[in-house]
Amino acid sequence: MKLDLAGAVKAVQMLGLLADYFDGGDAPWTKWVHTDDDGGRCLIGAMDLLRKRHRLYGDATRYYLLEAAGGLGTHSRASTITDAATCRSCLT
User: Fold this and answer.
1) Deepest in the core among 34, 50, 65, 76, taking most CB within 10 A?
2) 18 compared with 76, residue with greater pLDDT
3) What angle do helix axes 84-91 and 5-21 make, rounded to 10 degrees?
4) Where in the sequence is the domain holding 29, given as residue range(s)?
């Protein structure tokens, strides 16, 4: 993805939406699905839902989240965000 001002502005909007979304407190964390039967939330599923809900496409949110989580380069870096508290700490 090309990093430009428009993508950065959209990423800031998305990060704000994600912070609000995950501000629910002690919601269970899950991977690979937006919401599971126990109310668990997945970061990628939440981004997908919020992009559709707010028609917010072309953002660089993934790039900035991976940077906040410790850098780019491998999928294992994304696995450093393993729970809702870690996600919230990356968003603030």
Assistant:
1) 65
2) 18
3) 140
4) 5-91
Q: What band does 48 get if pLDDT is binned at 50, 70 and 90?
A: confident
Residue 19 Cα to chain centre, angstroms = 9
CB of 69 within 8 A of CB of 78? yes
Q: Is the separation of the CB atoms in 42 and 30 below 8 Å? A: yes
If one compares 72 and 45, the residue with the highest pLDDT of the two is 45
Which has more pLDDT, 61 or 26? 61
Q: How many domains does the chain have?
A: 1
* Coil/strand/helix, residue 7: helix
What pLDDT is attached to residue 76?
A: 46
Question: Mapping DSSP to helix (H, G, I), strand (E, B) and coil, where does residue 40 land?
Answer: coil
Half-sphere exposure (Cβ direction) of 70: Cα atoms closer than 13 Å: 10
